[in-house]
Specification:
The protein has a single domain, classed as Macrophage Migration Inhibitory Factor, CATH 3.30.429.10. 31% of the residues lie in helices and 28% in strands. It has two helices and four strands; from the N terminus they run E-H-E-E-H-E. Helix 1 packs antiparallel against helix 2.
């Protein structure tokens, strides 16, 4: 079920796939989510304004949408691990320019959010037809 969204300004140049893979690994390691349920996307933003509008400012925001019920300490660990990945990935930019990093975890209320899928556990796949 978890939906992971990475929004980033278009003045940051990087390959999003390795970042998404790393975020999947870290989130699964926390026990907050199952690998087979994570759906991720990276969205490059060209229309944005930060503070006074200086074009050298950049940001990366990670939003994680999960079903309710996970203890707050588990969510806090997940948020901290996501932030650590962002700092590792964008540390060079943080040191040499202006960058804002943020992580937000939100819960979907049980009984209102509905999902269905047939994505198997890792390593158990059928051949697509």
């Amino acid at each position: 079920m978890p939906h992971l969204t990475v929004e980033y300004t278009d003045n940051l140049q990087f390959d999003a796939q390795p970042l998404l893979a790393r975020l999947h690994e870290e989130l699964v390691a926390t026990g907050a989510v199952n690998l087979k349920g994570i759906k991720s996307r990276a969205i490059r933003l060209s229309d944005y304004r930060i503070a006074d509008g200086y074009e050298g400012y950049a940001f990366v925001h990670v939003g994680l949408l999960i079903r309710e019920g996970r203890p707050i300490p588990v969510q806090q660990v997940a948020a901290k691990r996501v932030m650590a990945v962002l700092k590792e990935t964008f540390g060079h930019r943080y040191e040499s320019g202006y960058l804002s990093l943020s992580v937000d975890i939100k819960e979907m209320r049980e009984g209102i959010a509905i999902t269905d899928h047939n994505i198997p556990a890792e390593g158990v796949r059928r051949n697509p037809q």
